[in-house]
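Entry type: protein chain
Record version: 2
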Amino acid sequence: MRFPLFLSLALCTGFSATAQFFPPGNAPKGFFRNPLDIPISLAGNFGELRPNHYHMGFDLKTNHRENLPVYAAADGYIAKVKIEPAGFGRAIYINHPNGFTTVYGHLNAFMPALDAWVMQQQYKAESWRVFLDIPPDLFPVKKGQFIAFSGNTGGSQGPHLHFEIRTTDENINRNPMLFGLPLADNTRPSITRFAVYDRRLSVYEQSPKWVLLKKTGNGYTSAPIVVNTPLVSFGIGATDTHSGSTNPN
């Protein structure tokens, strides 16, 4: 069978400007603000495949620095804090009245009142490592209120702020790109690899047939692809950037 590549790549070259595969659903625009006071630039984006997990938020660059002020993305209350040697390191969870929770990870220090309260709980528990539920009326916050300093704690490979938006009840992560945060993304993903698989076999029983691609003004082309099976799957490897960045998310 022969497949002209423009057909097989229709999905690959038909990305929207944001490379967004999932429907937006209930994602209020303008409700959440940038949790930093510098323009958003990503060191990691939503859904990246990491060595042992999918990355379920944004890694916001902090200009290679620690101790940048971190602000509440919207009105709400601090519902949880976590301190652990790996993972998020020091993290804050804020519940918001619209049914979402924002998470701020790899922090160096909490705001003074919260820091003092957490230290009291650590002494009571006789444990530095804690994951604490906080009464809703103890630490209410307003949009733009200072809550912490950014850092490099936990399983972090360099200074940055990990930021998530989740549904509060179901604890399901949502793509922050859907909420209208001020991040320009007018760049298309770049395909780095393209492969053909024989679907009659498991991926563990075969080696993919790699196809050499040539980038054009409108997408990619290749020589005709010849396969000897009626069941075919295509695989791509790709990276993406956002406007003004060369970071290959």
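Comment: Residues 1-24 have pLDDT under 50 and may be disordered.
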